[in-house]
Amino acid sequence: MNEVDFLLWVRGPGLAIATVIFVLGMTVKMFEIFMLGRKKNLAELRGTGVKEGFRTIITRSGHVDTYSTRNTRFTHIAGWVFHIGMFTTIFLLAPHIEVFKSIIGFAWPALPTPIIDLATVIAMITMLAMLFHRITNPVLKYLSTGQDFVVWTLTFLPLLTGYMAYHHLFFSYTLVLGLHILSVCLLLVFFPFTKLTHAVTLFFARWYNGMMAGEKGVQQ
Amino acid sequence: MTMACNDATTSGEEIFTGNVTPILNEIRHALNTLLETGESTIIDLRALPMGPGEEQHLESLLGIGEATATINAMGPTTVNESLFAGVWLVTHRNTDDEILGKFIEITRIPSILESQTEDIRGALKALPDLLAENC
Amino acid sequence: MADDRTLAEMLRAQGITRRGFLKFCATTASMMALSPAMVPKIAAALESARRPSVIWLSFQECTGCTESLTRSHSPSIEKLIFDVISLDHHHTLMAASGHAVDEALNEAMEENFGKYILIVDGSIPVGNPAYSTVSGISNLDMLEHAAKGAAAIVSVGTCAAYGGLPYAKPNPTGAVAVSDIIKDKPIINVPGCPPIPVVITGVLAQFLTFGKIPELDSLGRPKAFYGQNIHDRCYRRPFYERGQFAETFDDEGAKKGWCLFKLGCKGPVTYNACATTKWNEGTSWPVEAGHGCLGCSQPDFWDMGGFYNALSVPTVDLAKKAAVGIAAGAAIGVAAGALNRRKKAKAVSEHQTVTVDDLEKGA
Question: Chain A interface, mutation test: which of C216, C229, C309, C313, most A Cβ atoms within 10 Å?
Answer without folding.
Answer: C313
